[in-house]
Amino acid sequence: MAAPPPARVRLIACGALAREILALGRLNGGSPFDLACLPASLHNRPERIPAAVQAKIRDARAEGYDRVFVLYADCGTGGALDRVLAEEGVERLPGPHCYATFMGQAAFLEQAEAEPACFYLTDYLARQFDHLVIEGLGLDRHPDLLPLYFGNYEKLVYLAQTDDPATEAKARAAADRLGLAYEVRWTGYGELADVLRRVA
To answer: Does some domain include residue 2?
Structure first.
């Protein structure tokens, strides 16, 4: 009797995680998932994330996928994403933000309590800082808005997934541009690898 075909799994992810997801797939000898990404720029409009994710879930089901998993944390949706996922019967990354997955949920909560005035960058956000943050928030056109967006922050914390001096230089330059103290922490892929193994 022939074995049943493996389950088809669709991952719906923030584009900010795409490189890391693909890298983990290569490290594991190939990914058992099909990946669909939404634009990372949605983080500037988090109220749009739930509907965009729901549309991707329904697309995946229409395409015959057996399972769907969402690689977003709450990401500023204020619980709206969880309401959509409860309606659809789909799980997501745990925690408040994807960068908490890299740092580790417990470590992130401890850091957030000890130093609440931190702004976080991952590798992706460091590389795309000018596009997603400066241009995305209109600071290239209206630099006077910088205190409005970042006046309550004191430190930029770069959570490094890779040891890349060019990316770290971008993160340090971002801290300088925002007028924030700078700290780098090596996290690697953190808990993202564990989540993908569990989903598999």
So the answer is: no
